[in-house]
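Recap from last week: sequence in, structure out.
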Amino acid sequence: MPSSPEAARSSELQLAYALVFITPALWCVNYLVARWAPGVIAPHALALGRWCVAAALLAALAWRELSDKRHLIRAEAGRFVVLGALGMWVCGAFVYIGGRSTSAINIGLLYAASPVLIALASALWLREAFGPRQIAGVVLSLGGVLHILAKGDWSALAALRINPGDAWIFVAVVCWTAYSLLLRAWPSAFGGTARLALIAVGGIVVLIPFTAWEALAWLPTRWSWQAVGLVLAAALLPGAAAYGAYAYMQRVLGAARVGVVLYLGPLYSALIGWLVLGERIEPFHGVGALLLLPGIWLSTRR
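Predicted structure tokens:
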């Protein structure tokens, strides 16, 4: 019989590996929100509303810890603002802005680069072990992603064109990489839920002035029940739940292995498009999955 710490560690690993496949599904809800948002709610207003709701929910869940450790918040306040700016402002509003003027294949290709950046930076900066098996998994996963995004026609990749929307998404990809690494590199006195609540508050601090500028100078929002519904959907699933799961997986598995969960995004978005939007699932999705899923297994295997 394993000792109690060993059993606890085994349970943590099982949950973390399960979340590898659950978390991308939560993030895919954001694709639907982004698709329905234009004409309903402005990008910064959506990001601000999303994280206000998520922060309130997370703070309620971690209220006792936040209260007991309130004297420690000031020491990490700067880090919370930096992480909030990267994860909640840039990876929130910038994605909604970029989605207005770039194609789905461009967004997918740019986001597919994020796990590679995380893996390389983790090996170089955080000194995380990342051997030949994990490298093979990254290559397989990237091949599956490219096959799905190219719809089985690899010559289509040569037709890509850079536009302003691509630039917004590329900045978000780089900032997500930085968020993932800093989340791992910076120790915290707070548990996962409490820390995420404080990071969300840091993001809100950064989002408020940009949301005000957006409303006054660029794109005012007329609030409606549809807008409120989009905010709640983005806050609960790709917000609090997905970010919390991501932080948990990073703590248990490490930044390099967890970064590969983003490869499941194109596959899951195809399923959601079929179930919710009536889009067809084509043979290239199956071929991509045959490359993608073994790649996920190799990349996350210890």
